[in-house]
TrEMBL record:
GO molecular function term, any single one: oxidoreductase activity
Keyword Oxidoreductase set for record: yes
Identification of the protein by name: FAD/FMN-containing dehydrogenase
Gene3D superfamilies in alphabetical order: 3.30.465.10, 3.40.462.20, Uridine Diphospho-n-acetylenolpyruvylglucosamine Reductase, domain 2
Residue ranges of domain FAD-binding PCMH-type in the record: 36-206
Keyword annotations of the record: FAD, Flavoprotein, Oxidoreductase
Alphabetized Pfam families for the sequence: BBE (PF08031), FAD_binding_4 (PF01565)
Domain of life where this protein originates: Bacteria
Family label: Belongs to the oxygen-dependent FAD-linked oxidoreductase family.
Reported cofactor(s): FAD
Length: 460
């Protein structure tokens, strides 16, 4: 983009246009993952859908590259594009709750914490992720899973409607009755089909939950994971626990003697009878004596924000993911080896359960194509020091590649890293890819929205 085009954009669009020479440029292009250092030619903060429509029209008419930023939480930095235009939805952080209808309408730039805060005032919630700084829009379009998934399904299973700006600059509402093909694709197909300026969700009764953390020495990883793979799928759907390999952080609730120790563990969320949580989770002793076990009643939105201070914006990240329908014995050895070799205090692996209510949705009802998966795994190298970027990347890639033969072939799209290739995208969507490509041809035939894990428009 030359200077004349940048100035013309400032004249044409209503809101601010931030260029490389502006004082706020570096702050505007800052995202969650500091490993990403892309330099857009312009960032366009949008206050409403009309601003988004105007920005998309300008970008399309001038043949510019386009990226879309919601919460700025994209691991591979897909919310920025070098020398192009980032349409920034961050000013659109608002939530409207209808407590009688049990629905919430959410602005496209909102974070999970915005949604949780607004809905918890009424004792309500919808399934999302586990980091409150995550953008609602990006998480939802990729599928969305977290503490409430076994009980209430994926985020997309609770999506009622979405307002979307399309590649031609027009505005539509997608739902089961309006543009149903687009609505199907939005529920798991990522940001390939347009810009979601608002999303409407079904809510469920959720207030105080039973939160818990159990950790064992890292050398117990094999025995604990062997127990977990049998226990969790048979547990009541009110019981959720994701398995992790990690390093114990310095601070509560962990005792000082565990700080900095490599461990395996489970983070629990129980939505049933709070008086029975301790009894329900007493089974952790069946996996071997824990080094630490802690449970407490906790407001759901507090649990959602529990990890925010531990991994704030501005750290180095490299992550990958895979779906699993089992955890064979050979995989236990891989987890043990990489738990022992964890290179930095914040690097981790999580296995998130995605069974229960998520399995009761038909395999073709949404674009999410792994209804038969039991776990969604993420491998993440994390560290504040850029000097450790290559170290954490190697650990993440090695961990994922050694476990990949035991996987189902594809990954949760929001856990895909940079440069994994088009075949990896196809594996993520399995038999849904061709249908998604046809929807793409209808709504974005020229592939304007390609700064994503891209689904190419079908030919013909």
């Amino acid at each position: 983009m030359d200077t004349a085009t940048l100035e013309d954009m400032r004249t044409t669009l209503r809101g601010p246009v931030i260029g490389p020479r502006d004082a706020g440029y570096d702050q505007a292009r800052k995202i969650y993952n500091a490993m990403i250092d892309k330099r857009p030619a312009a960032l366009v903060p949008c206050a409403d859908a009309a601003d988004v429509m105007a920005a998309v029209t300008y970008v399309r008419d001038h043949g510019l590259e386009l990226a879309v930023r919601g919460g700025g939480h994209s691991g591979p930095g897909l919310c920025l594009v070098d020398d192009g235009v980032t349409v920034d939805l961050s000013p659109m952080r608002w939530v409207r709750v209808d407590p009688e209808a049990r629905t919430a309408e959410v602005g496209g730039g909102s974070h999970l914490g915005d949604l949780d805060h607004a809905t918890q005032a009424f004792g309500l919630a919808t399934p999302t992720g586990i980091i409150s700084m995550t953008g609602v829009g990006g998480l939802t379009l990729g599928g969305g899973h977290g503490y409430l998934t076994r009980k209430y399904g994926l985020t997309v299973d609770n999506l009622i409607a979405a307002d979307v700006v399309l590649a031609d600059g027009s505005f539509v509402t997608a739902s089961e009755t309006e543009h149903p093909d687009l609505f199907w694709a939005l529920r798991g197909g990522g940001g390939n089909f347009g810009i979601a300026t608002s999303l409407t969700y079904r809510l469920h009764p959720v207030g105080t939950v039973g939160a818990g953390v159990t950790v064992w020495p890292v050398d117990s990883t094999r025995e604990v994971l062997a127990w977990y793979r049998e226990f969790l799928p048979q547990a009541p759907e009110d019981v959720y626990g994701f398995f992790a390999v990690l390093v114990v952080p310095p601070g509560p609730p962990f005792p000082e003697q565990l700080h900095g120790k490599k461990v395996c563990g489970i983070v629990w969320c129980c939505t049933g009878d709070l008086d029975g949580v301790d009894e329900t989770l007493s089974v952790v002793n069946d996996a071997g004596r824990p080094a630490f076990h802690f449970t407490t009643p906790m407001p759901y939105d507090a649990l959602q924000g529990m990890f925010d201070e531990l991994i704030p914006t501005g750290y180095q990240w490299y992550w990958r993911g895979d779906f699993f329908d089992g955890i064979p014995d050979a995989a236990l050895d891989v987890h043990l080896a990489y738990g022992r070799s964890n290179p930095t205090p914040l690097s981790l692996m999580h296995l998130y359960p995605i069974d229960g209510a998520a399995h009761r949705v038909g395999p073709d009802d949404t674009a999410w194509s792994y209804r038969d998966a039991l776990w969604s795994g993420v491998f993440a190298g994390v560290d504040p020091d850029p000097a450790n970027a290559e170290t954490i990347r190697r650990w993440c890639v090695g961990y994922q590649e050694e476990l990949h033969p035991f996987s189902m072939g594809g990954s949760y799209v929001n856990f895909m890293g940079s440069g994994e290739g088009q075949e990896r995208v196809r594996a993520t969507y399995r038999g849904h890819y061709d249908r998604l490509a046809r929807v793409k041809r209808t709504y974005d035939p020229d592939n304007l929205f390609h700064a994503n894990q891209n689904i190419e428009p079908a030919r013909g």
